[in-house]
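Our consortium's second objective concerns turning raw sequence data into structural hypotheses that experimental partners can test. To show how far this objective has progressed, the report includes one record in full. It was chosen at random from the queue rather than selected for favorable results. The single chain below, 475 residues long, was entered without modification.
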Amino acid sequence: MSEQVKKPIKITETILRDAHQSLIATRMPTEFMLPIVDKMDQVGYHSVECWGGATFDASLRFLKEDPWDRLRKLRDGFKNTKLQMLFRGQNILGYRPYADDVVDYFVQKSISNGIDIIRIFDCLNDLRNLQEAVNATNKFKVQEGRGHAQVALSYTLGDAYTLEYWTDMAKKIEEMGADSICIKDMAGLLVPYKATELITAMKSATKLPIQLHTHYTSGVASMTYLKAVEAGVDVIDTAISPFAMGTSQPATEVMVETFRGTPYDTGLDQNLLAEIADYFRPYRDECLANGLLNPKVMGVDIKTLLYQVPGGMLSNMVSQLKEQNAEDKYYDVLKEIPRVRKDLGEPPLVTPSSQIVGTQAVFNVLMGERYKMATKETKAVLRGEYGQTVKPMSQEVIDKVIPGEERITCRYADLLDNELDKLESEMKEWKQQDEDVLSYALFPQVATEFFKYRQAQQEKVDMTQADTKNGAYPV
């Protein structure tokens, strides 16, 4: 690149969503975020990722907060910065596919409450599961002039995932009407020189801006960003240093310093970033002290590259083996994971496919016979409920696990009837805002518990009677 051509790299800050989701199980409360918003708003980030992913569930379940309220407060504070969320296609932020009317309504409410950029992904990269969310975002954009649909491809390795596969996907995403593309490398599998190849190929295939998201789990992420930026990537995701590295993203300040004085100079102010880091550092120390931040997730886990298994999936597997007193079977299960993945059509390993493949591999090893017992999720994948996989699934496994059952070849949501009215009638006694219906749709039990708690707070329960230490409030 000649010295004259300036191409400042843009930065999406993840501290308010993926960084704390990856390191402290999404437990950062809204009240802790708000005092630093004004400073963050002055930085000039491309966007701040602050909603979606696991934040919705964690807010209701553990923090006893309304996630919609968090979004409105953040929107109120960020006057100049675009806000971004992560959205799981037809699964929205829940764990089952929803009817199109729920997807449409969720997109509409997300944008009207303050989201600018919706990053939409599917665990199988089945674009049919993303189309409705893209359409809904575009429809809102036409009506209200706001909203950006970014389609994220879950990055993975395997015979099927050639450069041709990725460039072909990029073209299809452009045809779908998306505004930009994200390469979502949830397991930190994209190594530096492969990033050069991938970004170069995708840039030649599409005019859409390309954003790269990775995790530091395997130790290569900063180098991967360097090569991707040199290859022409438009935006990278980083986290302010106290909550960077480990299973989170590379540090914002480090990447800003790396490109200083080059054609890719971000132009961001290190003094301002240092003040933001100063704000988060005591909180990180507190999380280390109370055990919320486990030092284990701060290091490099090279098994990620060796076995192509995301860190979260490994820890999940270890705890499953521990429960069965079968920790000696660890390496057997590691060898079984790629076999199960192949049987199921070689899906990327990301929520929920990673959990499904991992759990099935554990069963196969512990039972001493493959697929002697199959989980209901494995059956659903084999039936085609999650969508189309890149490679065909094993006919032998299909015949063993779901013999004679009809398989779904269409988009699963085409089989679902509209469900908003039904959901609304189920929860109407708790409804205080339109958005409550969506909270209930995603997490019926958890949301109902939260609505009860909210009501108790509003009716000003007698605090002399409340056992505040244990968080029990008589209603």
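The partners drew two points from this record. The longest strand covers residues 148-154. DSSP finds 20 helices and eight strands in the chain. Both points have been shared with the crystallography group to help prioritize constructs.
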